[in-house]
Amino acid sequence: MTAIYWYFKQEVIRRRQAENLLRQQTDRERLVNQIAQYIRRSLDLDQVLATTVAEVQRFLQVDRVLIYRLWNDGTGSAIYETVLPPYPSVLGETFPEEVFPGEYHQAYSLGKTRTITNIEQTDVEPCLADFVKQFGVKAKLVVPIIQENRDSEVDATVAGSSATPYLWGLLIAHQCSHAREWETWEVELMQQLATQVAIAIQQSELYSQLQQLNAQLEQRVQQRTAELADANASLRVEIAERQRTEIALRHTNDTLQALVMASPRAIVMLDREGNVKIWNPAAEQMFGWTEAEVLDRPNPIGLNDQRSDYATIQTQVLQGTTYSQLEFRQQKQDGTPIDIVLSAAPLPDSDGQINGIVAVIADVTEQKRQAEQVRLLQSVVVNTNDAVVITEASSADKQGHQILYVNQAFTRITGYQPEEVLGKTPQILQGPKTDLAELDKVRTAIAHWQPITVEVINYRKDGSEFWNEFSLVPVGDGHGSYTHWIAVQRDTTERKQAEQALRQSEERFRSLIEHALDIIMILTPDDTISYISPSAEKVLGYAVADLVGQNLVEFIHPEDWGIAHDRLTNTAQYANPTSSIEFRARHHDQSWRILEAISQPIVDSTATRRVMVNARDITERKRLDEIRSALEREKELSVLKTRFFSMASHEFRTPLSTALAAAQVLENCQDEWSNSDKRLRNLHRIQDSIKNMVQLLDDILTINRAEAGKLTFNPTVFDLEMLCHQLVEEMQLNASPQHNLTLTCQGVVVPVYLDEKLVTSILTNLLSNAIKYSPQGGAIDLSLAFEVDQVTLKVADQGIGIPQNDHNQLFEPFHRGKNVRTIPGTGLGLVVVKKCIDLHQGSIHITSQVSQGTTCLVTLPLLTCQH
Fold first, then answer.
1. Which of 260, 395, 418, 482 is the most exposed place for a label (fewest CB within 10 A)?
2. How many CB atoms within 10 Å of residue 818?
């Protein structure tokens, strides 16, 4: 139990010691923080140092605490002290250098502290012991107050080494009542407080220096007060002006910034490298690049383009040259060209060095366009054949407004030179025959600021009369006020004479029309007859009054109305509007008369577009033409029949002879039946002969139906490209291996509205001819091209070609070229092709050279599908 008690007692002691240490440490830290906070809040060094020695004395429970200041001459003084009675005070005492010799300074300046537990201990110098005994000191603790040597700071900075420590003084604690063992934490506390004291001293010295500088400045101000007394008032004015200037400058800067942003002209600032530093909204709108796209990037508008004059301009501006109103052609971001006017100036910094360029750019594209337009208008005014007179709009006297300008045409028309009429009124042109009623209209229009056009008789300088048509219009200034009158005058004497002649001519032509045998009528846009000549009664039996106001459709045969209406009223759609059209018109006796008519558009005085139709009765002529045509057809038919029977008998005889021979061979030769190859060859001969006869009959029937007008035309919508592919594949299968058929297609492939059966016949005959007349084989090309309103088909071969003498007879039945030799054929293929193309209203063009091949180009119009 004694051991346990002892252990707990020791543990309690240790805990109390630890608590004491912790409390001492806390108090020590609180003291240091308190001193530090006080130093930060106060610039009064005396108060700081006095507080420090008082707090240290209280905290360490010593008899005396002092701050010992070392002077530059080696002496020292106790400048702050806290001492308990009855011990003597050393405050204010100055001690010689021997008290604290210089050899000790180095050690203390490096942070040495000295603790003396008992002044009688052996390591204490006798002189020091004798010195401190007179102040009752038994133990002492000395801590240096160190600062950096300010005299060495410049040298240390230059040399790159650290500053030399400067021993400002000492913080000393004395124990006078007894010897004292100094604790480590007490030494550390003194060191920390010495550091805080050093900070306070440095802070105070800086503050003192500032106060000294302020005092010196105040002294200088006071010295100059007398000199500046007279200028004081002006100085206040200058200060106020400077303040106003600064305010104005800030306002100007804000204004300039706002102006840059709101400027209608592009403002661009570049640095020396040509990178954009300012790019205002007007530049964005003018050139198309946004600020984010060009900021801190090379200038996109060519100021640093080495291939143009921009590079030279930039170099010279950076050398101090200012440019104004330079005109260039520049492209925007999207490539659109614009005309710009550039002003560029160097941008100096505060030291006067040029560190950039500022450019102001105006887009003068519209201005140049307007200037060109004004130039053209001026040219028009100067060179026009019409006289232009400009008068003032105010200060009118009884004679009218004074003339301010006349052009050359005015002199040419009137004979007056400009100097003879300027300042006078247009009344100088008026005379006895000038219509006063028309002049009253002019005065009324002028009074109400209204434009007017009148025509009157005026007089030239030589007194001769001329008809003068003039238009008078007021000119405003854009603010609602009228400033001038402009009169455009034209000499209409010749027109007046022409009108008189026209009236006379109209009377003559009316007489001719009234007595003409042809029907002359005028149609309105809705096909109403607005005029018809009296000859209509002789031709159709109707009175003029019965026809005027009636619609033309009521008198034309229903089968002829569509084409007749289209050709008579839509003359602008045809290349030759004067070409005639024939149609049947109903006579008053209900019979039908054949009329031949031409039409042309006319515009009357009301600007209404009408159609004039000239029609002639050709019923008798058509009857005679039909009789003549019938006779000619009979003759042609007789010749054709003779030729047909001759050619048909020849063409049918050849395949019939081949088939008969093959049949006889099969009948008479038993071995032909036994030999399968021979049997098939003879059977193929019979089949081929029959196919040739069938094809010949088909061609003859096709031509016969076409001649009789019975070949039907049934267009449908189909895929022409697919049809061409199919025909090429089929023809390739039937052709020899030496023939190579190809198909090419150009343009946008669209469904066509054509007669598929007739198109198949066209392509089959052309491809068959190309294969047939290329006995040595070779390439046969079919080209298909789709265009806006038509489709073209081209078949080209490398065969025997067609002699030049045969080109004019290509489309005659049974005609064949002289160089076909033994190549079988009927001479009907191209005739069938031509008939099929004609039904489509298309065309065919054939080019050929002997031994070099033939090219057939077929053009078919793309019809519109009618549902």
1. 395
2. 10
